[in-house]
Amino acid sequence: MIASNKNRIKTATVVVILFVLGALLNIPFSRELKRLKIEAGDTNVKLSDSITSDVIQTGIYGFVLGVILVFVGLWLSRKAQLGAPVIERFFSNQKNRTQNHFFKALLFPVVLSVVLALVMLLVHKLIVDYFPVTSIIERPSKPFYAIVSFSAGITEEIMFRLGLMSLIIALIQRFEKEIKPSTSVVWVGIIITALCFGLMHLPLSKNFSNLTLVTVGSTLTGNLITGSFFGWVYWKRGLLVAIIVHVVWDLVFHVVGSPYL
Fold it and tell me: InterPro entries in the record, alphabetically (predicted)?
């Protein structure tokens, strides 16, 4: 039990550090977006002259939120039996086995992620061809999207899958008095989390285009699909694989495909 608690604390430390790193990686994209808004004439946007202040503020915010999310995901929701098993096993006496198993467990979800991203690029092109969307401002260039792909993959998986999804499943599990969450309970958690994931992306979409029936519908549907996929990966493979799969999807869709550029 003592060893288990020590491993969980070490795992929690790694996840918090990852979250802070992910939050910091969002700074270049965020600053570039503000610059483009100001350039487009938005007088309500302020861009800090000091990158250092952005780093300090974001670091503190990331640390506090990261600690809360990790506490929720690894302690409050531990009966959901999700969490970060790969990272936790790394701190146990199974390092060699963990490394071999990890790469095998990673391959199939990564391939699925690439295929899903390519399919959604095709669907996006068809939608835009029939329902053109007028951009409000210019979008950040590819390098910014490449950096923010890592930021989103890390922070969104910790926030939505480790934090929210684990908590939802644990609460339903407690209500249903289940020792182990059933498949149906897990999928309810996956879908609810994916819906929240889609709603979270609406403000970002609003930065670049007006929220019409097409933009809202495509944003919610697209993120419901991807959010459900990431949730399934988190359920079956754990947090670390979900993060990597999310990063790969973002890189293929936003950087390689560049549907908005």
Answer: Rce1/LyrA-like_dom
pLDDT at 244: 97
Residue 153 makes CB contacts below 8 A (sequence gap 6+) with 22, 243, 244, 246, 247, 249, 250
Q: In whole angstroms, what is the distance from residue 220 CA to residue 236 CA?
A: 24
Across residues 128-152, what is the average pLDDT? Answer: 88
Q: What is the 3-state secondary structure (H, E, C) of 85-134?
A: HHHHHHCCCCHHHHHHHHHHHHHHHHHHHHHHHHHHHHHHHHHHHHCCCC
Residue 25: CB atoms within 10 A of its CB come to 19
Helix ranges, the chain (H): 2-25, 27-39, 51-71, 85-90, 95-130, 142-156, 166-176, 183-208, 213-237, 239-250
Asked whether the beta carbons of 115 and 212 are under 8 A apart, the reply is no
49-69 mean pLDDT = 95
Is the pLDDT reported for residue 68 higher than 70?
Answer: yes
CA distances from 165 to 2, 102, 238, 246 (A): 27, 22, 12, 16
Cβ-Cβ contacts under 8 Å for 92 (sequence gap 6 or more): 3, 7, 98
